[in-house]
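Our preliminary data section would be incomplete without showing what the modeling component actually yields. Below, a chain of 149 amino acids is followed by its predicted structure, encoded as C-alpha cells that our downstream tools consume directly.
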Amino acid sequence: MITAEWVIDAAKRIQPIIEQTPVTKVPQLDILCKWENYQKTGSFKLRGASNKVLSLEKSALKGGLVACSAGNHGQGVAFAAASRGSTCTVFVPENTSVSKIDAMRQLGADVRLVGGGYVEAEKQALAHAQTWEDWRASARWLFRLEGVD
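Predicted structure:
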C-alpha cells in the first residue's frame, strides 16, 4: 500500500527536476486541470521516471537504464537518466511517432525501433535486460510501463 509518507518522500525527491505546474478550475465543467504538459518533457511521466531514477544508488546507474515506451515514458526515463549522468536504451514500437522518437533521442536515449507493436517492444526490452549478467541484481534496471503511453 502506498502511504502518505512515501508520496511526500517522492515529492521531495523529484522537486529539483520537475516543474511546479499550475492547477486551474474549469467552472463550466466543475473540474480542476493540472497542466502537466508544462513539464520539461511535456508529460506527467517525468514524475514517475524521475522518482525511480533518483531513488537508485549511483552504482545502479553505471550500466545505463532500459525502458519500453511509445513516447512519453521514454522521454521521462531519458531525461532522468541524463540528470544523474547515466544513459538509457528505449525500445519503442516501430509505429511510434517520429516526434516522440526525436524527443527521446534529443534527451540522450538510444532508441531501438521494434516491429510487432508494444508487446513485442517490451519483450525485446526484457530480453535485452536479461542478456546482462545477473540483471536483477546488476547496475542495469528495467523500467516497465503497464499499457501504452
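The first helix runs from residue 4 to 14. Residues 83 and 100 are 19 Å apart (CA to CA). Preliminary results of this kind motivate Aim 1 of the renewal.
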